Amino acid sequence: YLRDRIFPYRAGYLPGERREIENNLKDGNLAGVTSTNALELGIDIGSLDSVIISGYPGTIISTWQQAGRAGRGDEESIATLIALQNPLDQYFMKNPSKFFDKSNEYAIIDESNPYIVSGHLLCATAELPVKVEEDERYFGKDLGDVLKALEKQGLVRDTPKGWVYRGKIRATEAVSIDNISSEIFKVICDGVLLETMDRPQVYREAHKGAILLHQGETYVVGDLDLKNQIVDVVKDEVDYFTE
After folding, report:
1. Where do the H-state alpha helices sit in the chain?
2. Angle at the Cα of 235 (from 232 to 241), degrees rounded to 5?
């Protein structure tokens, strides 16, 4: 059945689950996925034929990124944007040239932002030792302070050759390219880790009594421990949802 060959996908899934879904999609074992914008960046799925985008993503560049998940090989592909009822979606439906003739938005960032610098440093120290005196020109004058903060978190250490990465997972997996929140909550059912969420997502979706969907199954949030960053859920079949 087709329903058995379409899987959900989102960033909160455990790395092993995400890789399994991605590989099954690449190998043709899955016909498709229903996804959040987790597939928008940093993942090459391979030979997808079609992308259906439900609602304008909010920026032109995000729309092209999502549409670009298909057609990465030599075969033809199609991307379809289904507009919602909000004014921005309807504006582009009535004025398509405003979308197709306009360039992508400029990405404006503060290169001295310590959250951004720390992510760069984790990846850099995993490649080569970083030396404060020599590398301040790349990472800014606060390089030493950021390294010491990362050291307190057990992510880097100082060696005679320079600062090196010491995290338990790959540096690239420790750094999110679309979210700077470092507060990760664990969603647990009967002692088993189901997925992870950052704090903003927990506030939006995982309040006590909320319904969470995971791999097609429904779970009810029984307890939210903000101090220990744990969302305790119970598997249950319900005929309603929360948002």
Report:
1. 15-27, 60-67, 87-94, 97-100, 114-127, 132-139, 143-152, 171-174, 199-205
2. 90
Instruction: Write down how long the chain is.
Output: 243
144: nearest Cα among 121, 167, 126, 123: 121
Q: All domains of the chain, ordered by start, with CATH?
A: 2-100 (3.40.50.300), 114-174 (1.10.10), 184-235 (no CATH)
Closest residue by Cα to residue 30 from 215, 194, 213, 214: 215
Cβ atoms of 83 and 89 closer than 8 Å: yes
Selection from 193, 187, 227 nearest residue 211 by Cα: 187
pTM exceeds 0.70: no
User: 146 near 135, Cβ under 8 Å?
Assistant: no
8-25 pLDDT, tens digit each: 887 778 878 888 888 888
pLDDT digits (tens, 9 = 90+) for 160-178: 999 999 988 888 777 776 6
Whether 176 contacts 189, CB under 8 Å: no
